[in-house]
Amino acid sequence: MSKFKSRNGGGRAGGAGRNANHAPSVKPAASGASQAPVNKNDDVTVEIIGLTHEGEGVGRAEGFTLFVQGALPGETVRARVLKVKKTYGYAKLTEIVAPSADRVDAPCPIYKQCGGCQLQHMDYAAQLRWKRQHVVDSLERIGKLQVSGEAVRAAGGESSGAVEEAGQDAAAVIVHPTIGMGEPWRYRNKASVPMGMAVSGAIHGKDGLPQPDLNGEHLIGGFYARGSHRIIDMDECLIQHNSNDEIVARVKRIGRELGITAYNEETGQGLLRHVMARVGFVTGEAMIVLITNGKRIPNAEEWISRIRETIPGVTSIVQNINKRDTNVIFGDETRVLWGSEVIYDELDGIRFAISARSFYQVNPVQTVALYRKAVEYAALTGTEQVIDAYCGIGTISLFLARQAGHVHGVEIVPEAIEDAKRNAALNGIANAAFEAGPAEVVIPRWREEGIVPDVIVVDPPRKGCDEALLDTILAMKPERVVYVSCNPATLARDLRVLEDGGYRTAEVQPVDMFPHTVHVEVV
Ligand SMILES: C[S@@+](CC[C@H](N)C(=O)[O-])C[C@H]1O[C@@H](n2cnc3c(N)ncnc32)[C@H](O)[C@@H]1O
Questions:
Q1: Is the pTM value of this prediction over 0.80?
Q2: Is residue 459 part of a domain?
């Protein structure tokens, strides 16, 4: 999240391009030669000098840039060249000649096949340093912002006022050290698992017993092998809450025993596309969503009763129907098969109802740290009018409402807005109101209706804020803008627009919501 302070509240003087990119901070070396000094299948020694934003090592072999998955900065490795382009190439790591001090053994046995985590081979403290640097790089390169040196926290000081900068330009942005987790495993509250059929070989469950067979095929579910659409069966993921692993394994097992087929994206045949499991860390309540290619589920009643019998804690079983030929997980139709349409969870003492399709942060422990920081940066005194754009189920809105005069939340998914209203009532919070619609349409209308916000909080999806929304923020001239972002590139792009419109970026706090992956959340 970034905190802006209004400098002159002026109009927008210019805009950054909309194509904020994800390029590595280490640029390919200009070889100068017309031909690459390495060829496909060459075995080469590579000095690794950086890490791309996708977590690949960036190395030099004979002055030529090679991207090497699994290699870390500072290492010397041997690698086999896989692909050669004009100014760079890709190589497969074959041997680590001189390891980095940051190298650790990845604890997950399927880490190399699965694309879900990218940094398990890097010490956690080094991951946190790298994530901060990733944010700094984006702010400097894309946002053209001046970032001050290492922020020094005054002893015991947690508030932004306790940060001291020695010899820095007062206008420079302070980027704090990343807030990490004490125990960075089993942190995810949600699993979305693609389903497929195994064409040969016996499938063994967690208990080691062979699973029933369906015409020589078996229902499997796990992850897409790195860079492909081939599903690899998996029963355990070290960043998932145990309950989600347990639920998915049992749902698969029962589905196999009942002869449920998996959807085949090539033929369009088969039923089960994904199984989603979500658990409330505080309440222990769990939701299962069966995403199906059609409405009818054979043996549905038996499936449901066996799920209920074998998986304690499940309070909601929901079906979502998606018949479209698409990679998008959810279809438009959702119906409750059994139990409640929502599960409940709590963040910092506030209770939330969460329905199947609503966005809810996947790491609840770090979410509390993130939202507290957002509230701190909003610097509320109890009287302010606050807009929470992209509010989801009203999570940040309700954190803000505890300290604001009134909060207006807007979100595009109507079900999430229903949840937000329910959540405000559930917590007896009367000073928050919610409206469904695109933020870039609803907020300009609020402006016409005379709403004058003191603070605007935005928490957009990865693509960042809509240009029309940024224009409206500049026109509404709130005293502060608090920007929560899951994508440093679009954050930096949007900060440039706000800077050009008269705001100054004051502080940036990276939060590690997704340990062992390359993703970083920022306030
Ligand atoms: C990163 S999530 C943040 C949600 C919420 N602030 C939270 O922390 O749980 C972004 C949200 O923006 C919503 N969204 C996407 N495009 C939108 C738009 N144009 N206008 C309003 N909301 C939008 C998504 O549905 C999603 O709920």
A1: yes
A2: no
